[in-house]
Amino acid sequence: MRTLALLFLIVLLASSTALAHGGPGNLLGIVKEVDENHMVVAARDGHEVTVQLTEKTSYEKASKPAGRQDVVSGARVSVKLEKDGKTAVIVKIGSQTR
Fold first, then answer.
1. How far apart are CA 8 and CA 26, in angstroms?
2. How many domains are contained in the chain?
């Protein structure tokens, strides 16, 4: 019984983390810092996630192609991640926070 309760707790915590990231393979949040190779995003649940940016990462802003230079601190982003959960495939850039 105790093992079952522990298993339930682990599943519950794992699913809440996935939802905070916008679902499996996605991350929603605000850019805290960005450089040539990575960005740090404050997820909706408040914790910070480091995302790797590569030459294969594509960028989009207002449904139009964008570039790495369009990702700035304070911007809202939606990031589609590779299976490793750390590398950005697509970064959709939204408005900046005030």
1. 24
2. 1
